[in-house]
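To whoever is covering the structure queue this week,

Two jobs came back overnight. Logging them here so there's a record in the thread.

Job A:
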Amino acid sequence: MARTRFVNDSGLTVRMTAVMFILGALFVALVVGLMYAVGGGLAIVIGLAGIGIAFFQWWRSDTVALRAMGARIVTPEQAPELHGMIDRLCAMADMPKPRVAIADTHIPNAFATGRSPERSAVCVTTGILQLLTVEELEGVLAHELSHVAHRDVLVMTVASSAGIVAGMVTQGAQFGGFGLARSRGNNDNGGGAAALVLALVVSLVVYAVSFVALRLLSRYRELCADRSGAYLTQKPNALASALTKISGQMNAVPERDLRAAQSMNAFFITPAVRGVSMSTLTATHPPLEQRLDQLAKIATTLGKTY
């Protein structure tokens, strides 16, 4: 975790380290399984491809995320109030100022991206700028800056590489790999088919574990960012109000806009969905009620009331 004035969270550090270790070990197991199933050459190529995906996601994570939302970087002259809020929060947190971006969409949301505090960006949508008050928006921005300081955006981005590669291998086995298994099976009494089935099973396990582990980490990191942002601004009630408004406004967003932003849900402060329970194992965010309850307890600790 970066050394800032955001509240330290050892639980987040432990979880991020564990997720990276588990997924790294599973990725190695996947490559070894492929070496047994289809030969060392192809397995090495797939392994190098996985490393390449992880490196690309690490190096270009900020650019990819901003492009996915059609966001543009804005200068202090173009968005003076937004820059002013981020300037104040960065000074309070004692952290480098990220680039500031705005995405032109009705979806009220915000996200942070980047491989380090020095190479990061915080993006807000035009929808959230129109919806929230100054204090509420400040709470949202503090939440996003916490993600940057804790580096959990980077961990989420890189850790997803194992699942991406496993998904590619699974699809390859389903649509083409078993043809190779049959041809190899003619020469080794079905050993090739059995090996490819094993590779498929390993790929599915890696994908499933990656899917669940990343969602468990995602839900915890959102609670951590809520805590850290609330303690930084000393206004947990403002963040609670912002979360309530954002979640409620999703019902007014056209379904086509929500579908277009679906790939960014894990990084948004609130997922762009409507009428869906956040209490399931597959949810990227904790339930709104849990987030509001945590902020209410922080408000009590700070001697504040809603």
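Job B:
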Amino acid sequence: MNKWLFNIFVFPLLYFISIWPFWLLYALSSFFYVIIFHVIGYRKKVVIQNLKNSFPEKSEEEIQKITKQFYKHFCDVIFETLKLYTISKENLRKRCTFSNEAIKTLNSFFEKKQSIVGVMGHMGNWEWGAILHQVYFDPLITGVYHPLSNKSFNAFMLKLRGRFGGNIVSMNGLYKELITLRQKNIPTTVGLIADQTAPPESAYWTTFLHQDTPVFLGAEKLAKKFNWPVVYFSAKKIKRGYYQLSTEVITTDPKNLADGVITELHTKALERNIQQQPFAWLWSHRRWKHKKPANI
């Protein structure tokens, strides 16, 4: 889509939707659920197969229940993300919180001006979770993103993610940015989504949700290069429109761990997070499209 078309037609519509009250947004979300799940069947086969492979112990009835819960949650996340464009800090903080233990854990690093590598998955509302850091804490969050092919929509998403002062950096420019911040003695939390599909040849392979799974080594490589602690951010949906983030310290001494250990640990943390609330993960992506190479 051309930039001028996006600015004239799409952006005003998205902005208009973002100013709606939550009750109206969720009414629209419920309508979209009917369209996406019952009419279009968006990636329904992918979702159901992913769930069956990940939870072989569950009955057909249980899989169908989780599938419906997932699509309802997925539609909610779409409209909650749009709401980020106009939501106030106070309203976001009321609806998305850090647990007391998480605040204590993170402040123990920030009080020492210690940078950390933060890892989370596509759990709960990951867009809210990523931006919440700047609502609660003073230290900078450096969010890592992969640029979208549509430049206009990419710019729109960058505005959403950087509303409260976050430092949003593309993966290609991350190392340079972190070195600059270290030279300026500016501590930061590096925010990584660690459940993307990694290229099979360069990935760390593990068993995740009963399946051979390639995992990016980015979080581990960053932690070892800078010797920064690694923290997993766990997301829980409390009820519709309300979330809570908890933390699990993976390591405070990354350089002294064997290769693969950090990646294994944060992947298992994600697995536990998913098992606690199966519907709240992004099941519609093709997480297991690659087969494990025979020589690995």
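Note for Job B: The chain has eleven helices and nine strands.

Please reply-all if you pick these up so we don't duplicate work.
Q.
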